Amino acid sequence: MAYVKRNKNKLIKGFKGPKFVSSPNKANEKLFGLKVDVLIPAALENQITSKNAHRIKAKMITEAANGPITPRADKILAKKKVFIIPDILANAGGVVVSYFEWVQDTQALFWKEKEVNRRLEEIITEAFCDVLRTSKKRRVNMRLAAYMLAVSRVAEATKLRGIYP
To answer: Which positions fall inside the Glutamate/phenylalanine/leucine/valine/L-tryptophan dehydrogenase C-terminal domain (predicted)?
Structure first.
């Protein structure tokens, strides 16, 4: 909120400012019932549950928070054919940029913000395409496809390193 107050000229066109909500749970219930294209739960885990999943009208959910959808809610949303970009894919940017910081530190490099953003977009876009391709090929949802890809990559790296027979 402090950012909004300090940067009044940097808001989205037509946005009149934030509305304060006394009860976040009531706000979520209203939010989940809105007819929107994309819903982005971005703060807390377990916000979309079997009790409220049936009210969701979004065509797509991007999990910016860690674990915002419970397993039971996930099944309900799958039956409703809601396309979900899972948390391990949707919010991986912070981990990727932390890796970039490590690379720069170990090699005494300094990348400008534009370069960091370019590299981040390239990696996240490739990851999304890989998960989507796996999802279609294996006929599984995006969450399962992301896990399948992750496990196969760790297994392959372990095999190549020769750690385990």
So the answer is: 3-162
pLDDT of amino acid 132: 97
Backbone angles phi, psi at 12, to 5 degrees: -65, 135
Cα(89)–Cα(144) distance, integer angstroms: 11
Q: Are residues 99 and 77 part of one domain?
A: no
Please name which of 81, 91, 99, 76 lies closest in space to residue 146, comparing C-alpha atoms. 91
Q: What distances in angstroms separate CA 155 from CA 3, 18, 106, 140, one per listed residue?
A: 44, 46, 27, 20
Tens-digit pLDDT profile for residues 7-47: 555 555 666 665 554 555 666 677 888 888 899 998 889 99
Provide the domain limits for residue 115: 92-165
pLDDT at 19: 57
